[in-house]
Amino acid sequence: MYTPQRPSKTEDVPLRHTTYRVRTWGQPQAGTPPLVLVHGWMDVGASYQFVVDALSEDFFQQRHIIAPDWRGFGHSMPPTPCDHYTFTDYLGDLDALLHHYAPDHQQIDLVGHSMGGNVAMLYAGARPARIRRLVNLEGFGLPATQPSQAPARIGKWLDELQALHTGTIELKTYDSVQAVAARLQKTNRRLSADKALWLAGEWAAPDAQGRWAILGDAAHKVVNPQLFRLEEALAHYAAITAPVLAVEATEDSLGQWWKAQYSLAEYHQRLQAVPQCRIAQVDDAGHMLHHDQPEVIAQMIEDFCQI
Fold it and tell me: Residue 200 in contact with residue 184, Cβ under 8 Å?
């Protein structure tokens, strides 16, 4: 099994009527912005361990590094059950997290992967003074929608709420941690066996029946009832004042997901709305590029976030 080179600490932080599990490395440094790492859908803050281990010693010693589990993922479970999650709650949670770890409106450097990258881009537009540097790891946003799609979307949401409550929508369980690791490797062919086994122990845990259950709420599988409004997203992008590094893998995961609905070229066109944005690519990597090439991602973060 993979052995972390830089062990983390975890703490539970009350945020907005829920309790967030937060993983940290290092200590607060006066005059130095914290580095906040936010994960993607069905992932956990521990997912950044390989990148943290790959940071240079000088950079690591300079930074307080903070990686939360988003609400409904990992160990950040709501105190009462819910049947769907609202995307804007993540912006509210991030704002509350920063009030806790970076008080007095201290600037931070923010890294977000996938869903976390989408949250980071919107947050940086809503709170531009809070963000000094932003690294977006494949946070592509979603295909543009039209208002005419709203009735069908709400209808689908209602159907999926019923399916969730009848147990039709659920998360798969596994008979062992090794089976979870195999599942991770099936999804990501580049993930080594030692890293997969370590991640499996952070990504899942035994349930009351002894089955290994994913540390995530099945309600996340319910479709978002709100349409993705491109014009609003672009307004957020245009309001970002921090320099942005948009990182993507050479393996076009966006094209694989959305086919003709949304392309990498469209994403690049959207990024033109960001006042200061540079695009970088990572070779031999897929969507989980921080697992596939942690040394490359670590170096990109260091170079971009130097004081």
Answer: yes
